[in-house]
Amino acid sequence: MCMTAKRSALFPALLLALAGLSPVAAAQPGELPETIKRPELRVCSDPNNLPFSNRAGEGFENQLAELVADELGKEVRYEWHAQRRGFLRNTLNAGKCDIVMGTPHLGMLATTRSYYNSTYVFLSRADRNLTFSSMKAPELQDLTIGVHLIGDDGANTPPAHALGEQGIVDNVEGFMIYGDYREDSPPSRLVKAVARDEIDVAAVWGPLAGYYAARSAVPLRLVPITDTLDYMPMLFQYPIAMGVRKTDPFLKNQLNEFIYQNGEEIQALLERYNIPLAGRMEPVILGGGPG
Regarding the domain with residue range 6-116+238-272, which homologous superfamily does it belong to in the CATH classification? Predict the structure, then answer.
């Protein structure tokens, strides 16, 4: 995820991963590209990043890759690499794999039609009764707020920038999104800190919040973040697509057809993982089970 302008980051980790992306050779006219001819669907993926993917195949992007491969009559083969700076340079652009299962629409890649649209949310313990949704809520002045931090190049998450623009700094606690890869899915530390009552509220990307909140022993409240227009062009909602190299329109077309034909199955998959969908999500309380 490589955009350094502060108003342009979604998951800056993925944007930094796109740094240095350059095209590989395209198929000659009349020749089928290797991505169509080979029997594998070669997927660039993070081995430790639930709910998106992990080496055990437990993420929803893993499950989606299996659905795509089955539709195309192929078998999934992964190129594992931590999703941080250099991710695509060392995977997709190196020719080791051909598809990224989840990416915002970026000019550096050829992206499919969106298959979901999610949003940043406020996440808090249900017993705290924090029901505000506005990025300008006065309560934010006094609460301990957790946000993901990416690095020192200005590519932090939209909530982190928005809080900074309001001068809300001293009560903000940063959690490095990369974290320690010896731990399970390091970005989940932010959600777990809410459940443990280490912070009052987190402003966090919806898919991460929804997945881990549903598995929390403590009930957690998710509220979609609103009142963000003043921070434009920085966005808090993003449509997510699959990404391929610009030199591979054949695979992009196959993936677009898959998304079009399998919308209901994709929707059911997202629901199983409690992925919040922008424009359709109401405040919700999740978790409270055995964890």
Answer: Periplasmic binding protein-like II (3.40.190.10)
